[in-house]
Write a structure and sequence with these properties.
single chain; Rossmann fold; elongated
Length: 266
């Protein structure tokens, strides 16, 4: 592990379940981020498509995490970026105001179903039968189907979960008998590829820290980055995956790696 850490230039942290749970900061998160900034650059990523980057920035600062807007890679913002890059416009949106604000921020046109050429599906707490019907109408006209992610659920603390974006995507898939043309969020590598491009680093120079093997770690492995899986119940999660008990354990490993690189350990 120490040998590979020598190549790392940036630590990319998942948010939900890794840095915070609901509105509670994970123990050790703030001190770890602060200490890492002395030697590494920091990025935060999340599959949560309901909130804009500004909303996430305010939450992190409120919880005691110092960060800047350009360090946050939210699924909502990355979906907007992907659509602009792919020239997919005139959108019927199933999703939150946070997602819509990110789409508008990239200059994309959000329109009613009858004018829409394509659909975007994100987490939507007001999801309904009428929205399925509207999405189906656009797809039957040949529109593109872009999903923010396909997370089945997400943690909110106290061992409680809420339905994720997959609930919305799945309903539209079932009615249209069509899979999304593109899924932006993890375990797809799109978000991580944008982090690499923005920070001008190679995949192997990114350490990915997350609590989900099926999303965070699979994304890191596919992109050939260094994966740290936070899971106190596991000891081994497969070749190339470093399993750690918690964020404080990660801090200890990094201190040891730093000492070894300076010749302080044998």
């Amino acid at each position: 592990m120490f040998r590979y850490l020598k190549n790392v230039k940036i630590f990319a942290f998942d948010l939900d379940g890794t840095i915070y749970l609901g509105d509670s900061l994970i123990p050790g998160a703030a001190s770890l981020i602060e200490s890492l900034r002395h030697n590494y650059r920091i990025a935060f990523f999340t599959n949560n498509s309901a909130k804009s980057r500004k909303e996430i920035l305010l939450k992190l600062r409120r919880l005691g995490i110092s960060c800047k807007l350009d360090e946050i890679y939210s699924c909502s913002a990355m979906t907007a970026l992907y659509l602009r890059e792919s020239k997919i416009n005139d959108l019927y949106v199933v999703g939150s105001f946070g997602l819509m604000n990110e789409l508008k921020g990239e200059g994309l046109r959000l329109v009613a179903q009858r004018y829409a050429k394509n659909i975007v599906v994100g987490l939507d707490s007001n999801f309904s039968y009428n929205k399925i019907e509207s999405a189906l109408s656009v797809l039957l006209r040949g529109g593109k189907f872009i999903a923010c992610n396909e997370d089945p659920c997400y943690p909110i603390g106290s061992n409680k979960y809420k339905p994720g974006c997959a609930a919305m995507v799945g309903a539209i898939v079932a009615s249209s008998m069509r899979r999304p043309d593109f899924v932006v969020g993890k375990p797809n590598i799109y978000i991580l590829s944008r982090i690499a491009k923005s920070f001008k680093v190679k995949p192997e120079e990114i350490a990915v820290v997350g609590d989900s093997y099926d999303s965070d770690i699979k994304m890191a492995l596919r992109f050939k980055s260094m994966p740290f899986l936070i899971n106190g119940r596991l000891r081994y999660a497969g070749k190339g995956v470093i399993v750690i008990k918690n964020l404080r354990s990660l801090a200890g490993l990094i201190v040891k790696a730093s000492l070894r690189s300076k010749g302080g350990m044998k």
